[in-house]
Design a protein that fits this description.
The protein has 165 residues and is an all-beta fold. It has one domain: monomeric porin ompg (Porin, Beta Barrel). It is 2% helix and 62% strand. A ten-stranded antiparallel β-sheet has the order 1-2-3-4-5-6-7-8-9-10. Strand 3 and strand 4 form a beta hairpin.
């Protein structure tokens, strides 16, 4: 379960987002690990923005990839997302160097004026017990849809996290 507020344009300013997520891991962490899952994006009061997504992912050691599918991503149009990730341990495993590349495509993107959309990132993260910190550089290949909303400008992100018991 995930909850947040959004600022995706005048019609969505301050809107709530409430997502339901379910997944199943298949395999062993020491070898191939597969995951299948589904997510439902819910925007109370903005049901035209609601969407469903299913995915399958594969990982082995420090390499992973996933395929995501949504039958109703944008106004009922289908969308697909492919992602590849690297997560290379720099020490005993508590410090990781990461890299990410993703590509969105399909009718939802083509009919909105984009043929496809790519995103990328590199990160350095460190964990200790239940605590974590990450420094990431993230960006896209695409110009902003609108100068005020849905910004696609490259940026540096710093995140702190805590895992609850």
């Amino acid at each position: 379960m995930w909850g947040t507020s959004t600022n995706g344009g005048p019609e969505r300013a301050g809107a709530l987002e409430f997502d339901l997520i379910a997944f199943l891991d298949l395999g062993e962490k020491e070898s191939d690990l597969f995951e299948v899952g589904a997510e439902r994006y819910n925007y109370p009061g903005l049901t035209s923005q609601d969407a469903s997504e299913a995915w399958i992912s594969w990982s082995r050691a420090w390499v992973s990839g996933a395929f995501h599918y949504s039958p109703d991503w944008s106004e009922g149009r289908q969308a697909y997302y492919l992602e590849e990730n690297l997560s290379v341990p720099l020490d005993s495993g508590s410090t990781l160097l990461g890299a990410h590349f993703g590509r969105s495509f399909g009718p939802a993107w083509q009919e909105s004026g984009f043929r496809a959309y790519s995103d990328y990132g590199v990160s350095l993260s460190r964990s200790y017990d239940r605590y974590g910190a990450a420094l990431k550089y993230v960006g896209t290949h695409h110009a902003p849809v609108d100068g005020r909303y849905f910004s696609t400008a490259s940026r540096i992100v710093f995140a702190l996290s805590i895992r609850l018991p």
